[in-house]
Amino acid sequence: MKNTDARVDRYIDKSAEFAQPILIYLREIIHQVCPEVTETIKWSFPNFDYKGPLCSMAAFKQHCAFSFWKASLMSDPDKIFSASSGNAMGHLGRITSIKDLPPKKVLLKYLKEAVKLNEEGKKVVRKSGSKEKKELIVPEDLIKALKKNKNALPAFENFSYSHKKEYVEWITEAKTEATRNKRIQTAVEWISEGKSRNWKYMKK
Predict the structure, then answer these.
(1) SS3 of 38, please?
(2) Structural domains of the chain sorted by starting position, each given as residue range(s) with its CATH number in brackets
(3) Dihedrals phi, psi of 81, to nearest 5 degrees
């Protein structure tokens, strides 16, 4: 592989034992499809660029996640995109082993489509209401708490607007400072594991 980034090597080496073969496998497939891809670290996890952002992967305490930058423009003929793709589970859902991934030929096909979208210069069109999303104010005490956990802040930044809003509202609606602090502590724990605010009620 060429155009590799030593920071990605270190990220993989520091990941949990179960996650390392998953990250190595995904990395190799990406380079197989697009030898000209370049690696970088954004939001504290590996991202892959080719004529613009292409895809990303991340490892959490108990699962890995993989996301396509322009998933909304992709055709998804094999229906592999997870219903929970709006949160830190990524577009392929919760990945705990290579067996959780789609077949290699399917991944190759999807990556080729992602590469083609970038080669054609296709852009993701922001939906109406995107202006409102920019106005979400995250409490300073939550931000400080997230920064103290190496997994929590990048996971939170990768959440959809709705998932971020659920956490913000849960914390700001606390009636006492003690309750607020307890909710922040719980939020950081759940977010670091890639869980949405209402993860307990999501269908498995």
Answers:
(1) strand
(2) 6-119 (3.90.1150.200), 130-201 (no CATH)
(3) -70, 130
Sheet with strand 45-49: strands edge to edge:
38-42, 45-49, 53-59, 64-68
Confidence of residue 135 (pLDDT cuts 50, 70, 90): low
DSSP 199: G
pTM score: 0.66
Nearest to 102 by CA among 84, 78, 83: 78
Looking at the chain, how many residues does it have?
204
Q: Is 15 helix (H, G, I), strand (E, B) or coil?
A: coil
Q: Count the neighbouring beta carbons within 10 Å of the beta carbon of residue 86.
A: 15
Q: What is the three-class DSSP state of 141?
A: helix
Instruction: Map residue 55 onto helix, strand or coil.
Output: strand
Q: Is-contact 34 50, C-beta < 8 A?
A: yes
